[in-house]
Amino acid sequence: MFHAAIYRTYVLLYHCSGVVSLDLYQKLEVLAGAARYDAACTSSGVNRKAVPGGIGSASSFGVCHSFSADGRCISLLKVLMTNCCAYDCAYCVNRRSNDIRRATFEPRELAELTVAFYRRNYIEGLFLSSAVLKSPDFTAERMIETLRLLRDEYRFNGYIHAKAIPGADSALIGRLGLLADRISVNIELPSSDSLRLLAPDKTKESILKPMGFIRERIEQDAGETVPRGNRQRFAPAGQSTQMIIGATGEDDLKILNLTEGLYKNYKLKRVFFSAYIPAAENPLLPAMDTKPPLLREHRLYQADWLLRFYGFSAGELLDESCPNFNPFLDPKCNWALRHPEFFPVEVNLAPYNALLRVPGIGVRGARRIIAARKTGSLDFAGLKKLGVALKRARYFITCSGKRPDGLDIAPDALLCALLSEQARGRMEMAEIFAPQQISFFEHPAVAREELQKCLTGEL
Ligand code: SF4
Predict the structure, then answer these.
(1) How far is the CA of 95 from the centre of ligand 1 (A)?
(2) How many Cα atoms occupy the beta-carbon half-sphere of 118 within 13 Å?
(3) Which atom of ligand 1 is least distant from the CA of 199?
(4) 242 close to 272: Cβ distance less than 8 angstroms
(5) Which of 137, 149, 157 shows the shortest CA–CA distance to 108?
(6) Peptide bond preceding 344: is omega within 30 degrees of 0, i.e. cis?
(7) 455: Cβ–Cβ under 8 A, 6 or more apart, which residues?
(8) How far apart are CA 324 and CA 336, in angstroms?
(9) Could you report the per-residue pLDDT of 197-240, keeping only the tens digit for each?
(10) Which of 101, 184, 205, 350 has the most other CB atoms within 10 Å of its CB?
């Protein structure tokens, strides 16, 4: 035990003391690579125009982001302040006991890098996270200084998503939130038991307390009557979190209940799910050759969508008798098959909320149906023109009391029809969701030589 502790301390001091000196390119390589495990970034959710004398702008319609083929966000510079971590979370590559290359940005280095990349059009914003360097407060101070430089010295007006470090003082999180557009605290694992087992330096309280603080600050700002400049609003794009899926044994029901609770209690904008990528040989974790559960992650995202936009509750989608999603069916089809008493839905009469529950009818489709039927009754051809996915919807609806001719709605035939469509989708998805994230260094717009020049100021 004693020797192991000395070795850990030595590894930490060695890597964090400057004995290993990296140039800026190498730091970027290490810290952008280390950040790829963090899934919590997507569209900005904030609108802000460029200001005279400033650089950058942000838009709430995803303009400041693009997505790689696997669905990951690539238009932000997604990077860690440091990967030198004082904590030892078993599931994380940056844990202090892991012997990896370490690097730490100086606040000014990172601010200059962000601005240089922004000017070269490589990125449209910054997603800044960090390992715990010395202590949560020390790390938060460095992140604040980076953002302060960007906002005040470089007049950077682009989108910034910052991670709040669990355990950091509320006053520091308050300062961070005034500089960032979105702020997030990672929930990490779906239960406090798993947290205790795999992330002994963290507690449920150290994660939920800052979430509660952020919620209060955002609500305070929303309630203020005196208009303030966008820049001084606290996290105008709200807060989000990330949960690792598949590292521990919690079922989908547990994860979805937690997700629902987070939306209700902390008013989160998003809960991101991140399929666990094996990072350590550990009897408490899946084996190193386990594939990341990407399909499960996808099903949870679909269910999350149903919670946020379709009026479903977690308890409707799953229960103790069926605590996990069917990998072959999307959660809405799964719910529909388990609730035959709800169907068929008559599209010419059903309320909006009932239309939303029909597989193949989305939010836009339901709105169009409500608008279109004011001028006349709808038939199947009309529904197709409105963008309804009739391949699925036809099994669950009637138009003026009629179903499509010759449609077999026996439970087995229905299941077969839906499964074959889903299976096709699943095969396509397996190709799309290859278990890797586009690296900044592989970005087609960023040639290595050009990047080197940018870092050395030649560009
Ligand atoms: S605190 Fe964060 S970076 Fe450090 S080991 Fe835990 S998950 Fe990894």
Answers:
(1) 6
(2) 26
(3) 6
(4) yes
(5) 149
(6) yes
(7) 23, 24, 25, 28, 113, 116
(8) 15
(9) 999 999 999 999 999 999 999 998 877 655 545 557 899 889 99
(10) 184
Cβ partners under 8 Å of residue 279, min gap 6: 37, 91, 92, 93, 98, 285
Match 């203020």 to its residue by tokens.
224
Q: What is the crossing angle of helices 448-456 and 107-119, to 10°? A: 130
User: Which of 83, 89, 91 has its CA nearest to residue 15?
Assistant: 83
For 342, phi then psi, to 5°, come to: -80, -20
Contacts 24+ apart (CB under 8 A), 98-105: 98/279, 98/280, 99/11, 101/15, 101/20, 101/22, 101/30, 102/15, 102/16, 102/20, 102/30, 103/22, 103/26, 103/27, 103/30, 103/31, 104/16, 104/27, 104/133, 105/27, 105/31, 105/79, 105/81, 105/146
In one letter, which amino acid is 240? S
Note the pLDDT tens digit of each residue in 289-311.
999 999 999 999 999 999 999 99
Closest atom of ligand 1 to 166 CA is: 1
For a mutational test of ligand 1's pocket, the pick from 12, 85, 165, i.e. the residue with the most ligand atoms closer than 8 A to its C-beta, is 85
Give the distance (Å) from ligand 1 centre to CA of residue 364.
Answer: 40
User: Ligand 1 pocket: which of 83, 92, 99, 206 to mutate (most atoms <8 Å of CB)?
Assistant: 92
Domain ranges (residues) in the chain? 2-323, 331-431
At the fourth CATH level, the homologous superfamily of domain 2-323 is Aldolase class I (3.20.20.70)
Query: CB pairs under 8 A, 24+ apart, for 204-212?
Result: 206/166, 206/167, 207/166, 208/266, 209/170, 210/164, 210/166, 210/168, 210/170, 210/173, 210/185, 211/185, 211/239, 211/241, 211/262, 211/266, 211/268, 212/266
pLDDT at 41 over 60: no
pLDDT digits (tens, 9 = 90+) for 323-346: 999 888 999 999 999 999 999 999
> What is the distance between the alpha carbons of residues 25 and 420, in angstroms, rounded to a whole number?
48
Quote the mean pLDDT of the chain. 82
